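PROTEIN DESIGN WORKSHEET
SECTION A - STRUCTURE
LENGTH: 488
TOKENS:
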């Protein structure tokens, strides 16, 4: 199974290198990543009689819970440790690692898309909650119906998630273009404010100063600012922090100011446009409510837009990778071959592995859940884990973002695709859903780590201990609930 997972992971990476995100990256590869787990779950519930399936299905549930917990605890925490950089201004700086093992001074930063991946992962536990409701309400009659509803929700969420992944690159490019435009606005305001104070002492836009700026920009004194004059201004400011298309920036600024649509900006339009920008900056600035804030909110707005642009990440990186690939036909053939080989191996060895776990459990009197919870994820997720850790060790915001997104994505596919397979078996074969402690563990780990990933983009080193401690806590919780309190 480890070999199967390695082939599937290697083939997926090769395919993504050639085709970039979209249908392949968003739809095909997440499904392939979850294939070994899904195959084991399928086999554990289909083999033998109904009684055999009921006893073996705990192998599938152990694998499902174990994969989720291992990815979000051991792998997540290790990625923070190997990827840590020095933290300055709440962002980990690429490649800088001079503070040693400072719990608050070092860590990793991810982009905002990784936050969305964490939110989606946290939401993906909804089917577990639905299936668990009859047990919570102590109802036996509604269990079969709850399994069916949970299955329908899982499949709906799987389709929605795949669609989101397909359209995400387009959404990302749109967001990045908007962030660049905001950065141009903040840069122009900062430049103007450095020349003349744009605000009066009572915090209102200074109209006379804005008019003077208009006259300074109007190089040919025709009382109109043209696109060429605007471009000269933007080039003259030298925006060193970000790279953007100057003509596109000019077009967007003209669109903001030129309300008459005559491709020229008159003084009235200029005053109105700058006033509108100042009000937007004031609203966006975190310090706008403080005393004397009108003197520093422009600087705050500039820093805020800079940080926002950084956290969005490079929107066109994937296209560069795709264009630079040589021998794409051979790589495509090799990728498909690896994917087919991985699928065949996973299909061939899933049934013997489930039998081996069952027999080992009988021989040692260790419950099948604990064997599958600890041992099987090492086989089915090890290639993902190794590639995630190697990626994190490159110590860059972009690679950290891809690493954590991969981890959250793998857990999301466990929660919707693998669970859908599991629920389909339980419903079709009329098995009993009796996994309250396992579901509770999945819910706790997904919600804690999902909340941590959803509400922050920088993870100091101390956060790895939160992740690490959740692993032994999960094992202990299942043991206490099942074998001390008799939940199952």
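SECTION B - SEQUENCE
RESIDUE ASSIGNMENT:
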């Amino acid at each position: 199974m480890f070999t199967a997972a390695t082939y599937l992971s290697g083939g997926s990476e090769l395919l993504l290198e050639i085709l970039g995100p979209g249908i392949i990256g968003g739809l095909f590869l997440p499904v392939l990543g979850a294939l070994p787990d899904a195959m084991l779950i399928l086999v554990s519930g289909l083999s033998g009689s109904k009684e055999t399936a009921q006893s073996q299905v705990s192998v599938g549930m152990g694998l499902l819970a174990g994969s989720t917990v291992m990815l979000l605890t051991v792998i997540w925490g290790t990625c923070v440790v190997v990827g840590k950089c020095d933290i300055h201004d709440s962002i980990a700086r690429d490649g800088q690692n001079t503070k040693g093992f400072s719990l608050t001074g070092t860590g990793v930063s991810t982009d905002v898309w990784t936050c969305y991946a964490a939110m989606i992962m946290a939401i993906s536990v909804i089917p577990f909650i639905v299936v668990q409701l009859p047990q919570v309400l102590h109802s036996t009659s509604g269990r079969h119906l709850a399994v069916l509803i949970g299955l329908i929700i899982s499949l709906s969420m799987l389709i929605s998630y795949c669609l989101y992944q397909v359209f995400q690159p387009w959404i990302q490019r749109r967001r990045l273009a908007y962030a660049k435009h905001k950065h141009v606005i903040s840069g122009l305001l900062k430049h103007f404010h450095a020349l003349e104070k744009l605000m009066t002492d009572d915090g209102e836009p200074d109209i006379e100063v804005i008019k003077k700026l208009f006259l300074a920009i109007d190089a040919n004194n025709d009382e109109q600012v043209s696109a060429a004059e605007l471009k000269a201004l933007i080039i003259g400011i030298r925006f060193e922090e970000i790279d953007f298309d100057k003509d596109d920036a000019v077009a967007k600024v003209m669109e903001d100011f030129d309300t008459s649509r005559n491709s020229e900006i008159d003084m009235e339009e200029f005053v109105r446009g700058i006033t509108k920008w100042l009000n937007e900056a004031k609203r966006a600035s975190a310090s706008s409510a403080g005393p004397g804030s009108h003197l520093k909110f422009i600087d705050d707005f500039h820093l805020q837009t800079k940080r926002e642009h950084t956290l969005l990440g490079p929107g066109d990186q994937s296209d560069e990778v795709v264009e630079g690939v040589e021998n794409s036909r051979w790589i495509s053939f090799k990728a498909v071959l690896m994917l087919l080989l991985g699928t065949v191996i996973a299909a061939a060895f899933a049934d013997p592995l489930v039998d081996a776990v069952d027999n080992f459990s009988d021989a040692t009197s260790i419950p099948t859940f604990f064997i599958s919870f600890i041992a099987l994820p090492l086989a089915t997720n090890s290639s993902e884990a190794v590639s995630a850790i190697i990626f994190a060790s490159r110590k860059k915001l972009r690679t950290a973002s891809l690493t954590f997104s991969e981890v959250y994505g793998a857990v999301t596919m466990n929660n919707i695709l693998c669970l859908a397979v599991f629920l389909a078996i339980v419903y079709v074969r009329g098995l009993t859903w009796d996994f309250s402690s396992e579901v509770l563990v999945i819910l706790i780990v997904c919600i804690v780590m999902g909340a941590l990933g959803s509400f922050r983009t920088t993870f100091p080193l101390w956060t790895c201990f939160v992740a690490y401690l959740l692993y032994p806590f999960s094992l202990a919780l299942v043991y206490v609930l099942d074998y001390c309190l008799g939940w199952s």
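SECTION C - NOTES
Residues 18 and 324 are 9 Å apart (CA to CA).
The two ends are 29 Å apart (CA to CA).
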